[in-house]
UniProtKB/TrEMBL annotation:
One GO term describing the cellular component: cytoplasm
SMART domains: ANK
Placement of ANK repeats on the sequence: 79-111
Transmembrane segments: 21-41
Lineage: superkingdom: Bacteria
Protein source organism: Leptospira interrogans str. UI 12758
Any one Pfam family match given in the protein's UniProt record, by short name: Ank_2
Record's keyword terms, sorted: ANK repeat, Membrane, Repeat, Transmembrane, Transmembrane helix
Protein known as: Ankyrin repeat protein
InterPro entries in alphabetical order: Ankyrin_rpt, Ankyrin_rpt-contain_sf
Length: 170
């Protein structure tokens, strides 16, 4: 409003008649209206890529990444997970493969050192991340590895997969 008043005050000096001021209001108002109609502001939904992974929405994730969000953008509200960590933890094969193909860091770590492979191993989905070349020897701050995550509940099938990948008791 102050901007409009200052513009009108400058024009008042040049136009003494009140009819001219009404005309200026009309021209300025209509030009502002049509400018807003011609260039509508894009409605942005600020979902993070991790939101789409939680919802198992591959198409939404693809659109989100196309709009410029990072493939390794961490979840700001939950445990600082990357989209790949969540997909690996939840067993989302298609989303995991999509993220890996588009450059997701398979060795990204949480604050305490967990990786997507450790989360997938603990939840019985290690083949999701292992095929991508994830490091099987990475340790958490507590000293856990993907191998120790698999031994927490005697998961023999997962241990066999990790042995084939080169993990073991070091």
């Amino acid at each position: 409003m102050k901007l409009l008043s200052s513009i009108l005050n400058k024009f008042r000096k040049n136009f003494c008649k009140k009819d001219n001021i009404k005309y200026i209001h009309f021209v300025f108002g209509t030009s502002l209206f049509f400018t807003m109609c011609a260039f509508p502001q894009e409605r942005s939904v600020s979902y993070h890529p991790t939101d789409y992974v939680y919802k198992d929405d591959l198409q939404g994730l693809q659109n989100c990444l196309r709009l410029g969000r990072g493939v390794d953008q961490r979840d700001p509200f939950f445990k600082n997970y990357t989209p790949l960590m969540i997909a690996a933890k939840e067993g989302e094969y298609l989303i995991s493969e999509y993220l890996i193909r588009h450059g997701a860091d398979v060795n990204a770590r949480t604050r305490d050192g967990h990786t997507a492979l450790m989360m997938a191993t603990f939840n019985r989905y290690p083949e999701i991340v292992k095929r991508s070349g994830a490091d099987v020897h990475t340790m958490t701050l507590q000293g856990h590895t993907a191998w120790s995550e698999s031994t927490l509940e005697d998961r023999k099938i997962i241990q066999e997969l990790l042995i084939k990948a080169g993990a073991g008791t070091k």
